[in-house]
Amino acid sequence: MAKEKRLKIALIGYGAISQMLFDVFREKKPPIDIVGVLVRKGRVAETQKKVGKKVAVVDTLKALLKLKPDVVVEAASQQAVREWGETILKKGFDFMVIATGAYGDPVLWKKHLKAAEKGGARLRLPSGAIAGLDGLLAMRLGKLEKVKYISIKPPHAWTGTPAETEFDLPSIKEPTVIFRGKPADAGRLYPKNANLAVTVALCGAGLDNTEIELVADPTLPPGTNASKLEVVADSGELKLERLGRAMPDNPKTGVLTALTMADDLLKIVRHSDW
């Protein structure tokens, strides 16, 4: 009997997203093994207790890549993408990126595409906490006239961002636009909140032709965040609204973010293309 082929993944970071990936794969039991987790120095022992003995917990990229994963999954930060992405791709490891705000820098984006080509690796960008990107990808084959992405979160989700100094967040009583501008600026100024602004741009009209709004909305149902995607093209129009549950311990991130990452990894298994 042939041995089951299993996908080996290694995670960068052990926060809410990584923990949910562990939970999903534990429950669904797909042919996917999390072989390692890269954490900051000083957090190895604490993380090891949480993930169990079967998963290697390391504090260097070199040690993580020694585990020979099929896919390295970034679930940490834009800094991790900038610091390690090129090396991962050049060495031939597929790299899944969720902190896509780092690619608001077109130089980094081109560098990583070149590294992927050189290493024979794939740069994977899951859709994150949004839907409709399949439609946008198809519509861009024609002529895109307008692409607008709106990220809507409760006021407290914008703490620790420039909005905190520009607005009295606890006093906001109605939906308030706290940022209006380009994807690269949204991703740079709001690195934990607005990565999807850059994802939408890369899937559609590009960094210079995509409109972004970030909204603080105290009227959202408790524990949720929302988004809107508006596309006008010669092929028609797309208007999509999403209301999603936020991570219990991280209101800046939606549960759907982790689920789309899990789904993308499951697609690799289903299509047997690794």
TrEMBL record:
InterPro entries: Asp/hSer_DH_NAD-bd, Asp_DH, Asp_DH_prok, L-Asp_DH, NAD(P)-bd_dom_sf. It catalyses: L-aspartate + NAD(+) + H2O = oxaloacetate + NH4(+) + NADH + H(+); L-aspartate + NADP(+) + H2O = oxaloacetate + NH4(+) + NADPH + H(+). NAD(+) binds at residues 129, 195. Its EC number is 1.4.1.21. Keywords: NAD, NADP, Oxidoreductase, Pyridine nucleotide biosynthesis. Transmembrane segments: none annotated. GO terms for molecular function: aspartate dehydrogenase [NAD(P)+] activity. Pathway: Cofactor biosynthesis; NAD(+) biosynthesis; iminoaspartate from L-aspartate (dehydrogenase route): step 1/1. This is L-aspartate dehydrogenase. It comes from Reyranella aquatilis.
